[in-house]
């Protein structure tokens, strides 16, 4: 399968490398020239626990060098989704699939503005990764990946991609109701990202104190109340899943935490901010999410 990884940050580089190691033809596409140059010159260096390996993989800043692909894998921050829609549409041509495992809500709606929804596959992943330096990442957590078609009746593409992922060691299953899974991942992000970003702690350290556990718990419960008001099916206990995710990625710094550390715009608008906007429309009270959103926005404004 010919794959273009649109956005070769920590997670994009990780998935691209795993698929390349499994024999897929993968090109990493990213705007950071130093990152691309390092990968092309030295390979992508992956730290995994106490081990380190180098994966030879092609990287570029120019989508015209890639050509039409079978799969355009969108892994940019949600703040940049609109910027890459055209690229994803052109790379996937008339028959290729477009897959997003991005954090937050609203990405699929943005992609659908230029891409046939029948060719869009969405999902979530519990893998964790950190960009350490240009051309170097840390694989900080392993977990299940779940994908499904945006249009529930078209499972063919999702099943083919899941098969390739599983062959690459990316444990993946398919679901028909992907929207429910996106909300499940949103609950986890709501309960982890902003708190770790504001406090400077790792995902696992969120569980060390009852104070941070309680803030996380309340943020998730508020998000659940919004989801229920919208008629979203909720599977399992969202708080328990959030704490399990924090444990599974204990040594990882959340993506929002990494953004704050590097003084970059965060995805707060697509995570806690999304809950705030939906709650306002529905007349639901979400004071913890409103506070977390305001604090992150304040922090960004004073970079």
From TrEMBL:
Reactions catalysed according to its record: (R)-pantoate + NADP(+) = 2-dehydropantoate + NADPH + H(+)
Span of domain Ketopantoate reductase N-terminal: 3-151
Signal sequence annotation: 1-22
The EC number(s) this enzyme carries: 1.1.1.169
Gene Ontology BP term (one): pantothenate biosynthetic process
Pfam families the record matches: ApbA (PF02558), ApbA_C (PF08546)
Domain Ketopantoate reductase C-terminal: 177-299
Pathway: Cofactor biosynthesis; (R)-pantothenate biosynthesis; (R)-pantoate from 3-methyl-2-oxobutanoate: step 2/2
InterPro entries per the UniProt record, alphabetical: 6-PGluconate_DH-like_C_sf, 6PGD_dom2, ApbA, Ketopantoate_reductase, KPA_reductase, KPR_N, NAD(P)-bd_dom_sf
Residue ranges that the Swiss-Prot or TrEMBL entry lists as coiled coil: none
GO function terms (MF aspect): 2-dehydropantoate 2-reductase activity; NADP binding
CC per GO annotation: cytoplasm
Keyword terms of this UniProt record: NADP, Oxidoreductase, Pantothenate biosynthesis, Signal
Keyword check for Oxidoreductase: yes
Root EC class: oxidoreductase
Function: Catalyzes the NADPH-dependent reduction of ketopantoate into pantoic acid.
Family classification: Belongs to the ketopantoate reductase family.
Stated name of the protein: 2-dehydropantoate 2-reductase
């Amino acid at each position: 399968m010919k794959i273009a990884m649109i956005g070769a940050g920590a997670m994009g580089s990780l998935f691209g490398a795993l698929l390349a190691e499994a024999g897929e033809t993968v090109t990493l596409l990213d705007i950071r020239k130093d990152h691309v140059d390092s990968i092309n010159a030295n390979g992508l260096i992956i730290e995994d626990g106490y081990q380190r390996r180098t994966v030879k993989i092609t990287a570029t800043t120019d989508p015209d060098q890639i050509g039409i692909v079978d799969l355009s894998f969108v892994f940019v921050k949600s703040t940049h989704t609109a910027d890459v829609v055209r690229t994803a549409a052109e790379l996937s041509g008339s028959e290729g699939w477009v897959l997003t495992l991005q954090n937050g809500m609203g990405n699929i709606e943005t992609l659908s503005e230029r891409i046939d929804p029948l060719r869009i596959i969405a999902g979530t992943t519990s893998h964790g990764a950190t960009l350490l330096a240009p051309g170097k990442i840390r694989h900080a957590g392993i977990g299940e990946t779940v994908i499904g078609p945006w249009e529930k009746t078209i499972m063919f593409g999702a099943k083919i991609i899941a098969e390739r992922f599983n062959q690459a060691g990316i444990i993946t299953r398919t679901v028909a109701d992907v929207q429910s899974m996106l909300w499940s991942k949103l609950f986890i992000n709501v309960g982890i990202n902003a708190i770790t970003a504001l406090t400077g702690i790792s995902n696992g350290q969120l569980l060390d104190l009852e104070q941070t556990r309680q803030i996380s718990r309340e943020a998730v419960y508020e998000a659940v109340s919004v989801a229920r008001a919208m008629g979203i099916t909720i599977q399992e206990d969202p708080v328990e899943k959030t704490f399990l995710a924090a444990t599974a990625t204990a040594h990882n710094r959340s993506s929002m935490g990494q953004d704050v550390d590097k003084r970059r715009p965060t995805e707060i608008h697509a995570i806690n901010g999304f809950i705030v906007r939906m709650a306002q429309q529905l007349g639901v009270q979400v004071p913890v999410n409103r506070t977390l959103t305001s604090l992150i926005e304040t922090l960004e404004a004073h970079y």
